[in-house]
Structure formats: structure tokens, C-alpha cells
């Protein structure tokens, strides 16, 4: 679920438009066309009738909150992040800071099995089962959406996008972000997450930046959060993904920790990533005389290396721009 705040923050305007809603029970051709339109105009949408059971989502939320409810000393045994694992406030390795704690996992079952021993000592087997089932459901949903995008774009190989995350060596991740409630008497604290973006320096007395302005680098992001508000979709956006030659939008967003809420915010995010060796370049159908190729080709491993060396809000595709 994606919810946009309509309240202006800093110098950037938050999107006031309604969140596009895609019902996967619609006729497939119609749904595919509307998904592509939402990706071109907004870069995000809400999907309903997606087939992921409420019980599974609830179980995953319970496992995540059980972990975040542990004493700090126990949670730290699942860290420090390298970048996988448990982290608090520090995001990445280049100085970005947020008001959150998080758990970042690779979706490979063997990794989850090994990491579970430090995450859920009371019942690591149950934790593994829930995480693996949730990751599998997210991958299936992401695959269906990507194939519908391929159809909507008119790609000769409609599996061109989805094959990256179906590959057994895919580099997909699960991220759990936990934003605690800001106490009313807590002193105002303004973190600078991104020196290149003035809006990242702006908060209000009732909120703090939980996770600063950024766009997700993977092929697709599937996000679920509890009913606590905080996600903000920003009006400005960097260039679109290289695979579609910038045709689709890669939207900038951030998450706020808000004091008006009576409970903490939990986000569960699936990042569909390609194998490290995968070559990333524009599909031929997206390159035309009117829309020439915008980016050099690169491997996902090269892009990840560059990504981890840069600040959160930096537009990494600038490194591969042609001309």
C-alpha cells in the first residue's frame, strides 16, 4: 500500500493527486495499460485483489514486531548491517541518518535460515517459514506486475523484466523499517540526510525524517505498511529506470516519524533485484529516434558498488548518462 501525504514540506511540493489504484481482478489488458500509465505519470500505485493472504501479511508483521520489541542488546546481535542485518539510525556507509531501526535480509532461503538464529532465538524455524513464504508471495506478485508492464510497453519478450527476479541468482531483498512514535516532549532534532536536496533539511515540530529522500534502485519495489501514516511521495523525480530508457518514472519518496500517531509505523518492503552479473540496458522497443538511448549499459554489481559509495539522495544513473 502506498499513501501520499498532501501536506507541503520544505521547498518541494508533496503530490496532492490521488494514489492510482490497480485492481488485479480487472481484465488483464486493461490492468496492464493502467499500470504502465501509472508508472509513466506517477511512478507508484496501490494494488488490490493481489492474492497475497491477509493471514500471511499479519504473520509477517507479527514476526517483525516481535523482533523490534526485543531489548536493544538482543537486536544488536543481528547486526551491525554490512549492509544486511540489523541497523539503527545509520543508513548505508556515507553518513545518511534516519529516525528508525531496520532489518535488511536477502531473500535467499539459506541466508534467512542462517540469519534467523540471531533474529528469533525462541523459534527460528517459524521465523524462517514466515519470511520465506512472504518473500515467495512478494516475488510472485512482483513477477505478475512486471510481466503486465512488459505487455503494456509492447515488449517482444513480455518476460524481459520479470526474468531478472525469477533468476535463481536474483539479488532481491526484504527490508523491515520500524519508526517509533515521537514523544511530544522530545527535543526537536533535524538530521541532514542529503546535502543535495534542500527539502531533506525540513521537518516540523510533530515529525522527523525517518528515512530521507531517495528513489529505489531495484527493478521493482513492493511495499506494505501498517495503518500508521508517514510515507510521502515527492513531486520531483530523478530520471526513470535505464531498462525502459527513462520512459517510466522512478519516484522520489521519504518516510516520516510522526508524533500524532498512537502507535509506531512498520513498513515491509520487497526489493526485486537482478542477479549481480545481469547486464542492465534499455530494451530495444524503448529506444527510438525521438527517444535515443539515454544510458550506457552496466551490470547490477557495478551499479550496487556505485550505489553504496554515494549519499542516499544522489541520482546514481547520472554516472551512466550518455552525452
From TrEMBL:
Keyword annotations from UniProtKB, A to Z: Oxidoreductase
Taxonomic superkingdom: Eukaryota
E.C. numbers: 1.14.11.13
Principal EC category: oxidoreductase
Protein name: Gibberellin 2-beta-dioxygenase protein
Species per Swiss-Prot/TrEMBL record: Dioscorea alata
